[in-house]
Specification:
Helices cover 32% and strands 18% of the residues. By secondary structure, the protein is of the alpha/beta class. The protein has a single domain (12-223), classed as P-loop containing nucleotide triphosphate hydrolases (Rossmann fold, 3-Layer(aba) Sandwich). It binds guanosine-5'-diphosphate. The site of guanosine-5'-diphosphate (GDP) has 17 residues, from helix 2.
């Protein structure tokens, strides 16, 4: 039996210790209020009630870290958290507003969509997106819209994607398998050779999927290539490779 991990790869335990260092940094209601940073940022997104706050708290092993996003008036804010050593943070978690809450009026919904689309499209230091999806519901239309927002950057490999199928403790083994299969099928539609897309059954209650999720996020931040130039760099396509969602580069 050989291990496929490189010697420097973190294990789940060290990844969880790292996640535990998460602490509140700042909150913003507009993108231009977000601090500009080169630290790799991981965005947590999902339908309202999908289990996003619980997943963040469970990953960080803290009871009320992602609590601010539940405070009335703060639900449309982006909350940022620092990770790593106190004097030398090495990553940022961004808790984005939950979407699809039935009571939210249409204009607020449209505003949210725009903020979300803009963030996913332009946030330069975005290293990865964790999408929380209720394992009993699978992808909803809004989840698919969100996937569309971020797909171009996922398909080039610039932004990684992890789908957490939350509340998996509520499913039987058979149902869990079916949920995993259905979601994987949709993810297959946006997958490319360069893309790093994962999906995990996750239960905050049973702590299942927790180590693997922490490990994935830690690896993203460690492998993140910092983008320093203001313009997108022009990476020549690999010979013979076609990436459907990238705009044609003909002039
Ligand atoms: P958010 O709106 O996406 O932040 O969702 P919350 O984290 O507030 O979770 C919504 C509801 O789902 C709450 O009642 C949670 O207690 C419940 N929940 C979240 N994660 C789990 C889980 O892993 N298992 C179970 N059984 N319930 C969960």
């Amino acid at each position: 039996m050989h291990t496929s991990l490189t010697p420097v790869a973190p294990d789940a335990k060290s990844a969880l210790s790292w996640a535990h260092t998460a602490r509140f940094l700042t909150t913003a209601s507009r993108l231009d209020q977000l601090p500009v940073t080169e630290l790799p940022e991981i965005a947590f997104v999902g339908r309202s009630n999908a289990g996003k706050s619980t997943a963040i708290n469970t990953l960080a092993q803290q009871k009320r870290l992602a609590f601010a996003s539940k405070t009335p008036g703060r639900t449309q804010h982006i909350n940022l958290f620092h990770l790593g050593p106190k004097d030398a943070p090495d990553a940022v978690f961004a808790d984005l507003p939950g979407y699809g809450y039935a009571a939210v009026e249409r204009t607020a919904k449209l505003r949210w969509q725009q903020v979300m689309a803009d963030y996913l499209e332009v946030r330069r230091n975005l290293a990865g997106v964790v999408l929380m999806v209720d394992s009993r519901l699978g992808f909803t239309d809004l989840d698919r819209q969100l996937l569309d927002f971020v797909a171009p950057r996922v398909q080039t490999g610039e932004v990684k994607l992890l789908v957490l199928l939350t509340k998996a403790d509520k499913l039987s083994r058979k149902e869990a398998d079916a949920s995993l299969r259905a979601v994987s099928e949709v993810l297959g539609e946006i997958s490319t050779e360069a893309a790093d897309i994962g999906v995990l059954l996750f239960s905050a209650l049973k702590k299942s999927g927790l180590g693997d999720a922490a490990l994935a996020l830690r690896e993203w931040t460690l492998s993140h290539v910092r983008v320093e130039a203001p313009e997108p760099s022009t990476v020549p396509p690999e010979a013979g490779e076609t990436v459907a969602a990238t705009p044609p580069a003909e002039g």
